[in-house]
Amino acid sequence: NAGVTQTPKFRVLKTGQSMTLLCAQDMNHEYMYWYRQDPGMGLRLIHYSVGEGTTAKGEVPDGYNVSRLKKQNFLLGLESAAPSQTSVYFCASSYSSVDLLTDTQYFGPGTRLTVL
Amino acid sequence: AQTVTQSQPEMSVQEAETVTLSCTYDTSENNYYLFWYKQPPSRQMILVIRQEAYKQQNATENRFSVNFQKAAKSFSLKISDSQLGDTAMYFCAFGRYKLVFGAGTILRVKS
Question: Residue A25 above 70 pLDDT?
Answer without folding.
Answer: yes
